[in-house]
Write a structure and sequence with these properties.
The protein has about 220 residues and is mainly beta. Strands 1, 2, 3, 4, 5, 6, 7, 8, 9 and 10 form a 10-stranded parallel β-sheet that branches. It has one domain: 3 Solenoid (Pectate Lyase C-like). The chain contains 2 helices and 10 strands, in the order E-E-E-E-E-E-E-E-E-E-H-H.
Length: about 220
């Protein structure tokens, strides 16, 4: 009699941004953002106030962005590849569509961050404040979230399969209709997380979280 094969264990792997080691800060960096179609490559942008600007598109590759204020900016589309953003203010930034590949957000303020649809691969969001951010109907592949505050964030209908949430605050976050197969929630706060029984199936949780999700799954713990 043949034995049933055990499910193949999921192995998480995220590729870091490919950025050259030494970069010279761009001269008059503010001028780079004055065009309607913004394109930036191989640049170090730091300490610039760019809040409340509007543009049709923003393309950036192989660059580092440090201490830049992009709060309340609006873009038709954003495409970032091999980019690291550190200590930036992205509060209430809005884009109708966004494509991120090998991008890191380190200790960025992202409260009210809004994206109509985000396609993400190898993305890291670490620390910072992401409350009330919106990622509805987005797709995250090989991505991880570390020590993030996603309280009241909106992931409705988002594919989060295989993502890692490490020490995150997910209180009252919206994850209804999301895909959480192989998503690792262990160690994160999930009190008040909004989802349905079918949404949580396949997710990786710890014992304390399992107790919280038991009523959702119709399980009585004696």
């Amino acid at each position: 009699m043949k034995q049933a094969k055990s499910p193949k264990e999921f192995v998480f792997h995220r590729r870091e941004p490919e950025i050259q080691g030494e970069m010279i800060a761009a001269v008059n960096a503010e001028a780079l953002f004055e065009r309607d179609a913004i394109s930036i490559s191989d640049s170090l942008i730091e300490g610039v106030e760019l809040q409340s600007r509007n543009a049709t598109s923003l393309f950036m590759e192989a660059s580092i962005v440090e201490r830049v204020n992009l709060s309340n900016c609006s873009f038709g589309s954003i495409k970032l590849a091999n980019v690291r953003l550190v200590n930036c203010d992205l509060a209430n930034l809005e884009a109708r569509e966004m494509n991120l590949v090998r991008v890191e957000f380190i200790n960025c303020r992202m409260t009210g961050f809004r994206a109509g649809k985000v396609e993400c691969q190898d993305v890291l969001i670490s620390q910072g404040d992401q409350r009330y951010s919106q990622f509805r109907f987005s797709h995250f592949k090989s991505s991880e979230f570390e020590s993030c505050n996603f309280e009241d964030a909106d992931f409705y209908g988002t594919d989060l399969s295989g993502t890692r949430f490490h020490r995150c605050d997910l209180r009252n976050a919206e994850m209804s209709k999301s895909k959480l197969v192989d998503a690792d929630l262990r160690g994160s706060v999930v009190d008040g997380l909004q989802l349905n029984a079918e949404d949580i199936r396949g997710a990786v949780v710890d014992a304390a979280q399992a107790m919280l999700f038991a009523p959702l799954l119709g399980i009585r713990v004696a």
